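Table S5 (text form). Sequence records supplied for joint modeling of the two-component complex.
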Amino acid sequence: MNSPTIPEQPAPAPVLRRQFSLARLRETAIEWALFGCSSVSILVTLAILFVLLIETVVPFGGQLPFFGRVSLWEFFTEPRWTPTFSEKHFGVLPLVSGTILVAIIGAFVGLPLGILSAIYLSEYARPKTRAIVKPILEILSGMPTVVYGYFALIFVTPYLVQPLFHTLLGFEVDATNALSAGIVMGIMIMPMVCSLSEDAIRAVPRTLREAGYALGSTKYDVSLKVVVPAALSGIVAAFLLAVARAIGETMLVAIAAGNTPQLTMNPLKSVQTMTTFIVNTTKGDTPSGSIEYQSLYAVALCLFVMTFGMNVVSHAVMRRFREVYH
Amino acid sequence: MTRKSGIRPAEILFEAVCRAAAWSSLAILCLLVGTVMWKATGFLDWQFFTSFDSQRPERAGIWAGLIGTSWLILLTFMTAIPIGVGAAVYLEEYARDTWIVRFIRVNLSNLAGVPSIVYGILGLTVFVRMFDVFARDGMVTRLAGKHIEAIIIAGIEIPLPLGKSLLAGAFTMSILILPVIIVATQEALRSIPPSLRHASLALGATRWQTIRHQVLPAAVPGIMTGIILSVSRAIGETAPLIVVGAVGFARFAPGGIGSFKDLTTHPSGLLQAPFDKYTVMPVQIFNWVGQAQQDFQSVAAAGILVLLCLLLFMNGIAIVIRNRYQKKLRW
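The corresponding structure-token record, covering 657 residues in total, follows.
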């Protein structure tokens, strides 16, 4: 720090006018530089939109964009996705259905697990239990998704799904299938659902619970009929964020859900999700400007719109329906 | 209330179900780690750490991935930390409640929800291909009248566009990790009491002097914790790196620096490395998982164990820093 200098003579009457000085210039420059840093986030959003749009909708560099070559109608109604075949079809439905299939299974596994654990942790658990379970959830949520994919492929399919559905029930099960990927997807989103719901549940004031108990309710009644309804907006927001995360997840499905774009709702079949298509196509060398290359951007745009939309809705739900207690 | 006496079965059942759900996380973690360890037996040895990849599972190793991951993390955080911390300082210390600041805040939370693979596509276009302006028929080629493939600055050949280089990967990764760093730093800054700022300002320090000499030093432990946690996220990130061209099978280290001996024989490789091809651990693991030969599944398991140990180590450091400074500082 600069040492303060003692003025030698009493200061003249203050003039309330900003004087130019190098120090002030420096301060302003620093403020603007820091503002520049924070506006990088806007720049990134604009760049994402720009990049996705120039290959798909707005022509750039004299090339026909993707939707100039493939009509929107075909993109959304054609049931085949065969960009690398000689007879090309660009119907995004098989990819979307694969994505949604895995995400729905994930939601069916992850949401109950996550919300019930959140209720347990905030309403029932002793502090000691919390101190053990919370770090475990943190470890699970920090687990790289390749590891989850490996787990689905090496453990869940051969030791859980195969014995149950093939040996016992006689269905045909592919080596990579939507069900295994979905189950593990549920495990992956569970910590996120749990911690977001727990935040919402903890925000419910004690007085509400105490009023419930004073009326003779049991813990079960208070949890289910007072706390959960009061925290519902937060729980719904958590649900949306988690499903958006499941839709955007890549490595887990690339390893465990397969690589066959097909329009099916059979969870025992191998499917291809939007993310798997992108990662597997970019693994090879697709020449830029080709329609296969542009289809990457069309799929990415579709994915971006879906997840971004869910995020926006989730944040809106959190703001709009949050009950404010005083 | 309709209850007559005793506890309804529904209550016991509900509590049991909730308890089971909460403890299922422990069961899952044990199962997951157990599966990986069981698969990795016999493959995790010293040779696995020190060798490059191989076509034969018993000779394959993760050395290239270890070096690549270290390079990538170093370069990523050299770009992401200054921007991220700067942005957080602005948002916490300077920003007034204007529409643009509100927009930046909302935008940050939305960016955190963008799938990582979309960042991959962004990196592919902006850094790897640079919008194809340097291509044979690109805009720059037409304007300059000749095809530019690289520029040489201080003896370092910088390819244009960046191509599937380490630097392109690092830039992509730093964009991906930026929201995480910003949010973590914001939290650290928020935990510094205003009285500290007031005291400094009252003594005549300017705003920046206050931040630079009082607020930031006090927030360093919190910022460090956040950064280490985001490093561990970056280490496990796979999909965007595959999109921007991290190779799956690598028998080389970036810049040819694969050991300390290489460092003495051709130190200039260090400067060339950011523009070289690379691989990282999770991409190697993904590549092994995709191999037909069964033994490669075990190699992948060994790789996963190394990755998990590294993550555990990073999180351990973060926890130690957090505990240490939480005790020391009492506001």
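Note: The first strand of chain B starts at residue 150 and ends at 153.
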